[in-house]
Design the sequence.
């Protein structure tokens, strides 16, 4: 077996991680920023749609409305009813 964990060291075969200040580190930071931006955009969109659904229900959050919101969020089928 080439890999072993000793005291939190999870290195495998003497290999080390590339330095975080090179091109790989910059690409990783860029990817993280892009992912965070897309996540923030999606959260804002979901918040707007939830606010619209609440407004359509007269501001009342009923059990059935809450179930519908959760179902749509977790199913990634987030479209407003027509």
Sequence:
């Amino acid at each position: 077996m080439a890999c072993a964990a000793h005291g939190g060291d999870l290195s495998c075969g003497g290999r080390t991680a590339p330095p975080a200040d090179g091109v790989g580190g910059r690409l990783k930071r860029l990817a993280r920023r892009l992912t965070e931006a897309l996540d923030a955009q999606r959260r804002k969109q979901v918040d707007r749609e939830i606010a619209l659904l609440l407004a359509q229900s007269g501001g009342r959050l009923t059990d059935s409305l809450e179930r519908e919101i959760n179902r749509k969020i977790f199913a990634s089928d987030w479209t407003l009813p027509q």
Remarks:
- The first helix runs from residue 23 to 56.
- Residues 24-75 form one domain.
- The chain has a mean pLDDT of 78.
- The CA atoms of residues 24 and 30 lie 10 Å apart.
